[in-house]
Amino acid sequence: APPCFKIMLFLKHYGIPFELVSADAGKGITKESSYKKIPVMTASGRTINDSSVIVHQLLAACGGDAFDKERQEEITFGLQPAIEVDVLACAADFKKIALKAGFPVWCVPEFVLGGLMGEKISESIKAKNPDMKPSLDYGKAFKAQFPDTTFHGGDDPDQVDISYYGTVAPFHVGEGCVVEAHLADAGLAAWYEEMLGIMPIVD
User: Fold this and answer.
1) Cis before 134? omega within 30
2) What tens digit of pLDDT does each residue of 14-38 get?
């Protein structure tokens, strides 16, 4: 899941050792877990959840920059659902991501997968996020924050770069995909390549 990938990038960025624990959707990380969403992170016996809260706590614990609440919430609650809607609207991308996630949909025609599942999930996301803007709006607004530098953080990525990258990278499923178009139209293609060089995606 993109929020989990984003947290993993932050842990790697700060050199924090971690162990990934797999969890089935809606079942929690243990049988006793009352919280069913992911990511969930346990550190020194304390459990914290929600990617935005985890990033906030990581930054505080690592002595990094002050948590940029406005940018982080825009990415978590705006960009992420908007990108999900875009991907669900593209049957080819949706199928590639479903296969990558381990769902046995290889024999399901793309138009069936998109029509039966993609559209239903997309409408659910839109209903839960009535103030959500098109993903391109978030992309252009993000790029406008660093028109003359390589990264939002200047010469090096900062927390906002990591969060944006960690949100879109899991949905980049190859040439011609929805995320590739999003990055190109927002003027973020070169930024993405720089981020990819610093934080390679490893399956």
Assistant:
1) no
2) 888 887 776 655 555 555 555 556 6
